[in-house]
Amino acid sequence: MENGVRFLGMGVPKETFEQAGRQQFIELLAAGLLPESRVLEFGCGCLRIGYWLIRFLDPECFYGIEPAKNRVDHGQEYLFSPAMLAEKKPQFDYNAVFDSSMFQ
After folding, report:
1. Handedness of CA 81, 82, 84, 89 (dihedral sign)
2. Which phi and psi (to 5°) does residue 91 adopt?
3. Is the pLDDT of residue 1 over 90?
4. Which domain holds residue 98?
5. For residue 41, which of 2, 6, 104, 90 has the smallest C-alpha distance?
6. DSSP H/E element including 39
7. For residue 34, what is the domain's CATH number?
8. pLDDT tens by residue, 37-84
9. Domain total of the chain
10. What is the CA angle 64-72-38, rounded to 5?
11. Residue 17 and residue 24: Cα distance in Å, rounded?
């Protein structure tokens, strides 16, 4: 993740990017998150927790809504290889009203 952290200047503190995402992920695991769980993250931004979730979850189990598409694009570019994204198939939508109906 070290290379990915360098790009973050979008309101995300670089110093705590990895730690904060990891802590949220640990809390979800403690609450019973499983690889087959389906997760919808509202305001997924530059994928601070998505970094952990997309790797952990089964393919097509991560969904994110973020009105600022450029944030998601940066997260995908710097935190994931094209092969990882092709394998895991996370799905994103960029609507500003956080309408989740497209993920049904």
Report:
1. positive
2. -120, 140
3. no
4. 2-103
5. 90
6. strand 39-42
7. 3.40.50.150
8. 999 999 999 999 999 999 999 999 999 999 999 999 999 999 999 999
9. 1
10. 20
11. 11
